[in-house]
Amino acid sequence: MTSHASHLTAAAGSDAEGLRHVAIIMDGNGRWAERRGLPRSMGHRAGVEAVRRTVTASLDAGLGYLTLFSFSSENWSRPPAEVEFLFGLLRMFIRRDLANLHRDGVQVLVIGKRDGLPSDIAALIREAETLTAENRRLRLIVAFNYGARDEMVRTVRRLADKVRMGSLDPSAIDEPMLSANLDTAGTPDPDLIVRTGGELRLSNFLLWQAAYAELVFLPVFWPDFDDTHLNAAIEEFASRVRRYGGHAARSPA
Ligand code: IPE
Ligand code: IPE
Ligand code: MG
Question: How much is the pTM?
């Protein structure tokens, strides 16, 4: 059996070989609402339901890590009312869903810049991370106020500070050290990045971590996303051959 075929077999069993971490760019809320003649905010609200469905589907699929891009460092350029609405949805999500997530064994982690966030949001994030710190069934990583370039700049500054203090030799800086100092420290790189909404770009999401991720772009708007879309993306992942610059692994003849 070729490795390709064995991957497909694995997908049929719903947990594709080598798939630990799925990261999703949840895009298309505004267009979903506009198509219905609704304000964009209604699309964002419907998007929270899709988040709940996706967490459940990820638990069912046995994923170890699910990262969701919910607010980018560039989304501050939207009208203040929309930004405030999105912040309100994060508050509501943590308040309403934290207990259920904890019950289901989900560890909640938040990546992105904390400085400059409203203090009550920062407190809710700390509460969610503290309560769920020991959970291991699924890691739910919420990218909020996150931008990959901002993450890298904050990381480089921190390392540069250590060099200045004399506690770090620049020659000791290598790829594992950089990885270990990003917001995603301790999290394996995403195997699969899914973007909904039809745009074919990463929009400053996990640029370092995405080095060898498989990319799947779906035309579905985020509020319509459900387990069938997640499972279709997983199946697509299972049909890909990952080479990491080398040759495809071959099973013995
Ligand atoms: C994604 O939906 C949610 C965020 C970026 C916060 P959008 O609001 O970007 O929706 P579209 O892309 O305009 O349809
Ligand atoms: C990416 O979507 C950010 C999130 C999904 C949170 P955007 O809608 O902000 O991306 P662009 O502006 O189309 O690149
Ligand atoms: Mg968008």
Answer: 0.93
Ligand 1 center from residue 175 Cα (angstroms):
32
Beta strands in the chain (DSSP E): 21-25, 65-72, 106-111, 138-146, 192-195, 214-217
Q: What is the pLDDT of residues 106-129, one digit of tens each?
A: 999 999 999 999 999 999 999 999
**Residue 187, both tokens:** 């999290």
Distance CA 73, CA 86 (A): 13
CA of 116 relative to ligand 1 center, distance in Å: 22
The domain defined by 3-12+20-238 folds into Undecaprenyl pyrophosphate synthetase (3.40.1180)
- In tens, the pLDDT along 16-25 reads 889 999 999 9
If one residue of 27, 35, 68 were mutated to test the ligand 1 pocket, choosing by the most ligand atoms within 8 A of its CB, it would be: 27
In the block, which residue shows the tokens 């996706």? 54
3-class SS of residue 83 = helix
d(CA 135, CA 207): 27
Does the CB atom of residue 32 touch ligand 2 within 6 A? no
pLDDT tens per residue across span 63-103: 999 999 999 999 999 999 999 999 999 999 999 999 999 99
Q: Cβ(61)–Cβ(231) under 8 Å?
A: yes
In whole angstroms, give the CA distance from residue 53 to residue 236: 20
